[in-house]
Amino acid sequence: MVPASTLPTVQLALGSPLVAAGVRALLASVGVSVVEEGGTVLVVDDAWLGRSAELAQAGAVVAVGSVAWAGVLPEVAPGGWAALPSDATPAELLAGVLGAAAGLAVLPPTLLPPPSLSAEEDEEEDLPLTGDVTLTPRERDVLALLAEGLSNKRAARELGVTESTVKFHVQAVYSKLGVQSRAAAVARGIQLGLVSV
Q1: Do 124 and 101 reside in the same domain of the chain?
Q2: Transmembrane residues, as ranges (predicted)?
Q3: Is-above-0.85 flag for pTM?
Q4: Which of 13, 120, 126, 174 lies in the 20 to 30 Å Cα band around 60?
Q5: Is the same domain home to 51 and 129?
Q6: Which neighbouring-strand residues pair with 189?
């Protein structure tokens, strides 16, 4: 059990009263308080897709439902976030709430990229371990912030640049790594030894 002093408060914004009751009971069973408003973590479902402005005002967000959340939350959630499937287990839900409250990005195993090959397997496949990928120091900084789950806006504040500059660097990182999403960029960066988490 997590020490009570480190537990977040949770606000539920779920469309189904039955699901909300189940989530409330699960969280209460481990000592997490559910509040009517102003929780440190907001738990939402697919009805919140497209409500970016409201999500941006929340601290941390846990979204349960569509896999589309994995692409939406990194852009709109100012704090940590979790994108979970509608059939998430109680342990996954609790991990998502605690991870998001801690400022982490949480994805279920089904949305994670496949594990990288070991060095021996890489050599057998004639795949270079580091590839010919060279990132500029700023691109490395941006990739590191992506690995921390920061949004473009937060990364811009962290680096002291504009959000447009961060978007430019993110696109350059995607292009150099041959990926199309933040999760894939982080996974590929870890695989190539360009970033560690």
Answers
A1: no
A2: none
A3: no
A4: 174
A5: no
A6: none
Residue 143: give the domain boundaries.
Answer: 119-191
| Per-residue b or e along 55-72, where b marks 16 or more CB atoms closer than 10 Å to that residue's CB | beebbbbbbbbeeebbeb
Please say whether the beta carbons of 113 and 184 come within 8 A. Answer: yes
**Region 74-103 average pLDDT:** 82
Are both 46 and 66 inside the same structural domain? yes
- The reply to whether 103 falls in a domain is yes
Residue 138's CB is within 10 A of a number of other CB atoms, namely: 16
Cα gap 192→176, rounded to integer Å: 12
DSSP assignment of the chain: ---GGGPPEEEEE-S-HHHHHHHHHHHHHTT-EEESS--SEEEE-GGGTT-HHHHHHSSEEEEEE-TTHHHHHHHH-SS-EEEEETT--HHHHHHHHHHHHTT-EE--GGGSPPPPPPHHHHHHTT--SSTT----HHHHHHHHHHHTT--HHHHHHHHTS-HHHHHHHHHHHHHHHT-SSHHHHHHHHHHTTS---
In-domain check, residue 197: no
- Asked if the model's pLDDT at residue 168 lies above 80, the reply is yes
Do 110 and 87 contact (CB within 8 A), yes or no?
no
Q: If you average pLDDT over every residue of the chain, what do you get?
A: 79
Residue 41 lies in a domain: yes
